Design the sequence.
């Protein structure tokens, strides 16, 4: 459900001049995996069988991303400054989709379930975008002395990015824990979809 295993690909290479803190937009795309069934319970069971694997277990949905950077390093006064850094971010939401047409009452329940799950994953997408903005903030203008070949600055940048990535992973986990616990939004969505008198899940 979260993107803790998503890859932060930090490509360190020279680019054409860019404006510091230039505006950028993430590319967001939705992919689906097929599930079977014509009742809420059957659909949910199929999710359990076919959902994306996250840390060894099946999830309802998953948000992944690919992040690369165009960075411009400039030697300055015997040191090096990171003059600009522009992200190229692609976020992918993996969501379930019934393989066959659903009966009208089930279709209505499914649409509510799907909308709620997608909204949940979009929050993970927002976490990713916030992380990229934080990376941008600590990157642009970063200066390292005694680094005319702009080598030390790359190591320093990597050191600064570690805590940001770790904090984002915790944010994902905390959010999922809240949403999936008894009374949480995603747990309620599951109960409403199955709706067969089992009571709280």
Sequence:
């Amino acid at each position: 459900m979260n993107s803790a295993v998503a890859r932060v690909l930090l490509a360190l290479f020279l680019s054409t001049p860019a404006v510091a803190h230039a505006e950028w937009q993430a590319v967001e795309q939705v992919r689906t995996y097929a599930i079977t069934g014509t009742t809420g319970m059957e659909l949910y069971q199929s999710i359990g069988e076919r959902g994306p694997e996250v840390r060894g277990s099946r999830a309802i949905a998953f948000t992944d991303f690919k992040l690369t950077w165009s960075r411009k390093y400039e030697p300055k006064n015997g040191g090096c400054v990171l003059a600009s850094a522009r992200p190229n971010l692609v976020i992918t939401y993996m969501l379930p989709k019934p393989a066959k047409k659903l009966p009208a009452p089930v279709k209505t329940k499914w649409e509510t379930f799907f909308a709620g799950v997608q909204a949940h994953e979009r929050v993970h997408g927002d976490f990713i975008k916030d992380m990229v903005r934080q990376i941008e903030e600590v990157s642009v203008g970063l200066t390292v002395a005694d680094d005319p070949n702009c080598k030390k600055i790359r190591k320093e940048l990597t050191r600064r990015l570690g805590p940001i990535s770790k904090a984002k992973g915790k944010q994902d986990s905390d959010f999922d824990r809240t949403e999936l616990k008894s009374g949480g939004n995603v747990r309620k969505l599951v109960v409403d979809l199955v709706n067969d008198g089992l009571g709280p899940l």
Observations:
- Residues 27-194 form one domain.
- The CA atoms of residues 51 and 60 lie 6 Å apart.
- The longest strand covers residues 79-98.
